[in-house]
Design brief:
With 223 residues, this protein is α+β, with helices and mostly antiparallel strands. It has helices at 3-28, 42-50, 122-135, 139-145, 166-169, 216-220, and strands at 54-64, 71-80, 84-91, 95-100, 103-107, 113-117, 146-152, 156-163, 172-182, 185-195, 200-211. It is built from 6 helices and 11 strands. The chain has an 11-stranded antiparallel sheet with strand order 6-5-4-3-2-1-11-10-9-8-7.
Length: 223
Amino acid sequence: MAVKEVFARQKTAAAFLFTLAFFAFDASLSLFASPASGQLSLEDVAERLSKNKVTRGQFELERAAKGGKALKSSGGFVIASDYGIIWKTAKPVRTVQVVAKDFTLTESASGKRVKVDAGKNPVYKQMALLTSSLWNGDLMAAQSAADLQFWSDKESWRIEMFPKDQSVQMALEKIVVEGICSGGTAAATKMQMFLKGGNSARYNMSGHTFSDTLLADERAYFD
């Protein structure tokens, strides 16, 4: 298998796992008790995240393979709570990855698109069903997806997710999401995935802006 193909598959898998992390986090927060006085509660973060129908920003992604050289890429992202995530990679090669609740889509620099039904992959199918239920507010599904550990202070928060599903465990050990709360809203600023075999992926996210709707070209990716 060519190096570029491996690179693309790893990036698509990383993007899908991030979607699971983001929406599982968003939907599962209210399952926990409030922390000590002066700290952010999970309910605080959940309420503020829920205000963000569409979040845009920039990302830097570093994928590290055990014993190998780290691969870096960067670009912009769009998180739409009702649809999924768009990763628009600008460097080193322009590509677009779309991770919806029931499919993944990759667009090459030439504009060629490859769309894959999540149901064709057992792991993707499980995660797609889970994220779909989470987007619909099914908190029991969120709770059953992972064992969660949460830390916070007045302005920042961190959550570690340990998947329960055995098929997901075959690929993923844990996901760590970190973020901030400021001005009445919340945003994820860092996400790390620790994969089986010592591989990892780390997203650093910045420049967050918020709106209520997708642009027409963004919405078209989910049709």
